[in-house]
From TrEMBL:
<dbReference type="InterPro" id="IPR052741">
    <property type="entry name" value="Mitochondrial_HTD2"/>
</dbReference>
<dbReference type="InterPro" id="IPR029069">
    <property type="entry name" value="HotDog_dom_sf"/>
</dbReference>
<protein>
    <recommendedName>
        <fullName>Thioesterase/thiol ester dehydrase-isomerase</fullName>
    </recommendedName>
</protein>
<dbReference type="GO" id="GO:0019171">
    <property type="term" value="F:(3R)-hydroxyacyl-[acyl-carrier-protein] dehydratase activity"/>
</dbReference>
<dbReference type="GO" id="GO:0005739">
    <property type="term" value="C:mitochondrion"/>
</dbReference>
Amino acid sequence: MAFTPRRLLHGTPRLLNAASAEDACHELFTRFGNSPISTRSQLLDANQLHLLNITLNRTPTTSLPPKDGTPLPPGYHLVYFTPSIQGNELGQDGTDRTVNPMRPFTRRMWAGGELEWSRASGAALRIGQIVQETTKLISAEAKMSKTGAEMLVVGVEKTFENDSGIALTDRRSWIFQKEITTPIPVPPRPMKKPFVDLGTGEGVQYRDFRQSPVSLFRFSALTFNGHKIHFLPEWCREVEGHRDAVVHGPLNLINILNLWRDSRGGIGGGVAPKRVQYRAVSPIYVGEDYRIVLKEDTGGNESQAELWDCFGKVGMKATIEA
C-alpha cells in the first residue's frame, strides 16, 4: 500500500494559539520541578548484551551470552532501561513523549551529551547486577534555529546505581522543534568525496561502517525505540525531508567508544573511559559509507573522535577522557 504525506501526517490538527518556546520551558519545570521524572530498577541481563554484540558484529553467531560479572562495555547501558509505554502513547513520529514539552514542540532530536563513569572500587556496571536508574530534568532553554524558528534545548540526567553507589552518570541534550504540518522536501544528494588519507601516523586510528536496514531495525528493537526516522523510509522522505532512514546517534556513540576501547586492548569490555562528551552534527543514512576517526592527544589521556560521511561532512564529534 502506498504512503502519502497527507496520510502519514493524518491526525495532526493545526494549533491556532500555539505555545511559545518560553511557555513550553516553564511548563516542563512546572511539571517535573525538582522531583525525578522516573526511578526504575532492572536486571542487567546477559541476553541483551549478547544481542547487541551480535548486532554490532562483535560476537560470532555461535557464541554464548556472557556470564554474570562480565563488565558492561562503555555505552552499552543504552540498550537497558528502555521506554515502557504503549504504542498508542507514542508521538506521531514514534518517539517516547515522557519528557516532551507541550505542543507544538514535539519533534525530538538527540543533540549530544556527556557520560561520566565512577572510578570508585566495585562501581562498574556488570551483567547480573540489579541497577537503579533515576532520571531528572536539569535544563530547558528556549532557542532559535538557524532558520529563525523557535525550539527548545532540554537536558536530562540519568544516574545508574548499583550496590557500590552511582556507577554512571548520563547527561543528554534533546532538541525539540515544532511538529511537522507540511512535508519537508528532500534536498538533492551531495557528491561523494573520498575519505581523507590518514596515513600511518602514530595515535590515529579509524574504522569504516555501513549500516543496513537490518542493523537499524535490530538497534531500534533493542532500545525499544519507535522513532520512525530509523526504520520507515516513507516517513523519512515524504515527511521529514531525509533521503533515507537515519542511523541512531546512540549507535554511532557506541561504535566510537568501541573503537576507543579496542585501541586500548579492552575488547573484552573491561576498559572504560572517565568521561566522554559528544555532539551530533549531521545525520548519517542507512546504506551509506562512513568512517570514525580517533586521534589520541599527546600524553594519551584524551582522544578526539570524528565521524565522517562519504560526502565529506562530519556527523558526530566526541572527546574521550581516559
